[in-house]
Amino acid sequence: MKRRLPALAIVLVGLVALAGCSSDPLAAEYGSGGNKNYVAGDGAVLEIAPAQRTKPISFTGTTDSGAVVSRSDFDGKVLVVNFWAGYCAPCRVEAPELEALSQKWADDGVAFLGVNTNDGPETAKAFARTYGVTYPSVIDVDNGAVQLAFAGTVAPSALPTTIVLDRQGRIAARILGQIQAKSILDSIIESLANEDSE
Fold it and tell me: Which candidate, 183, 163, 150, places its Cα nearest to that of 78?
């Protein structure tokens, strides 16, 4: 009987620890047996007022077509950065909406850049063909350099995540998870595109 008490105590401690994790979405996903292989966000929107924005983000990466791209290539433009992967179902759903917005804002100083966190160039290009995406994607699977550039400020901690930079290259907004309505991102872009004229 004395030998069973320590074992029972360990079980009770474990149950208490698990109960404490019940509000953690990642733990809940793991506990429910989900096998998405990615952390899904809920579409929550974070907007950052100009006075609260930190210094410009700096990153360099290679796109699926082999071109080297840096954040500074987009100086003076609003830059929409979408973190995605080919296996991510919400990424597939929102891809046509992102493309539509990239076309709508192309002549107004707004650029779009994908960041593929899982796939090689050929898979990324096949995804772009399938979903009609014309803007480039950085292949970030090997070193995660672009993801790391954002990690210290507003991390892309779910797939998909869309982060919008202002014309100075500073993080101005983040949508964590699938964009719930195209109008949400459209409104964010419009606000940032018009900031200089206010």
Answer: 163
